[in-house]
Each structure stands twice: as C-alpha cells, then as structure tokens.
Amino acid sequence: MRILVVEDERKTASFVRKALQAEGFATDVCHNGDEALAAASVTPFDAIVLDIMLPGRDGLSVLKLLRARKKMTPVLLLSARGEVNERVEGLNAGADDYLPKPFELSELVARVRALTRRGSENKSTVLSVADLTLDTVTHQAGRGGKKIDLTAREYRLLEFLMRSAGRLCGRMMILEKVWDYDFDPGTNLVDVYVRRLREKIDADFEAKLLHTVRGSGYVLKEQT
Predict the structure, then answer these.
(1) Phi, psi dihedrals of residue 196, rounded to the nearest 5°
(2) If the chain, 224 residues long, is cut into consecutive pieces of 10 residues, what is the mean pLDDT of each piece?
(3) By C-alpha distance, which of 204, 202, 173 is closest to 190?
(4) Where are the domains of the chain?
C-alpha cells in the first residue's frame, strides 16, 4: 500500500511518515498543493492524507481538482481548525474522512488503514497488461498461462510498473517507489532488477512489454 502525505509542517509530516512506514505503508510526502496534484497524477496511491491549510493551493482546492479529474483515491483530511462548516465542506468535496489537529498518530494510522481496506474492496486485486497478470493479494504473476516466480523486490517493481502502465517511469522515481530511497545510491540497481524482471516476463514471449526509453527510464506497455 502506498500513501501520499500532504503536510506543510515538516516535523508533523516526518512523524506521520515514520508512523505509516512502521505499519508497512510505503509513504511519499509533499509540502504544498501543487506538488500533491503532480504526484497524484502520476502515482496510483492507495490513500491520501491531506492537510487543508497549505501554502498556495489549499487542501480543499486539491481535493476538488482530484475529484474533478476522476481521481477517486480515498482522502483523509487534516485541519488545525476543525470547524463544523469546514468539515462539511471537505466531506461534500469528496473527502472520505476527517481528523482534527492535534491528533494521535495511532488514530491516524488506524483511519488510513480503514480507508485502504475500503478502497481495496472496490478495486480489482488482479492487475493486467496484455496477457501479463499480477495478483496483488497472492503476489502471483503469470503470462500466457505460464506461472512466473518473483522475489519480493521483483514483485514490488512489477506491481509499480503495472500500476503505472503506459507511463514513463524514471530511475529516480523507481528508486523512490520501489526501494523508498529519496537519493540516488550511484549504482545500477534499477537496471539490474529491470533486466532480471525482463528475463522473467518477456524472454519467452514474442511480444515484449517492458521497454527501455534511452536516457529516461522504462515503460510497461503493450506493443501496438
């Protein structure tokens, strides 16, 4: 499960990120509304923790734009004010839950977990690109009726690429989403794992799905 935390108070954002990561959530952080919109446009998050009071574009504006763009990712709103009118406006704009500040981290984590469970009930657990399938519950992959065995890291890489199917995934983006690195380790780690994954999902098939975009990254898509 991948969560986006949108919070301009960096200390609060850090505490929330660490609490979610401790519970097994891969967690990205943005500090303003424009960053949040950009991130939510390219990454299929399982839930968003969204502060209302943000510099520039505020949280309610972000929420309304996401819903207008048919992004139905579950959203937990945070606010230091907690007025009823604001809460109602947020829920009417499409928020799934609301938590006033200050809050207990344990309650926030519980609410995020509830949102991801609710969201997963409405999502297919099987991803597919052409004849490649990936069951996100059993972690079983297959192509053309052939079972594909994956290591844990290969599974995370394939899941990310399949959820981003058709979109270019740069090496730094892959490091952030699959390894939770926010820095470049200066190795060919991504290239090595992509090569291993390609051997498993493409080598025995005429139609190739995992493509290299020279100098930019990789894209998983059906050939046309």
Answers:
(1) -65, -45
(2) 93 94 90 92 88 91 90 88 73 88 92 80 73 89 93 92 89 87 82 95 94 92 78
(3) 173
(4) 2-121, 126-220
Angle at 110 between CA 109 and CA 112, to 5 degrees: 65
pLDDT for residue 176? 85
Q: What fold is seen in the domain 2-121? A: Rossmann fold (3.40.50)
Structurally, at CATH architecture level, domain 126-220 sits in Orthogonal Bundle (1.10)
Question: What pTM value is reported for the model?
Answer: 0.59
- Rounded to 5 degrees, φ, ψ at 149 are -90, 130
The reported pLDDT for the residue numbered 183 is 75
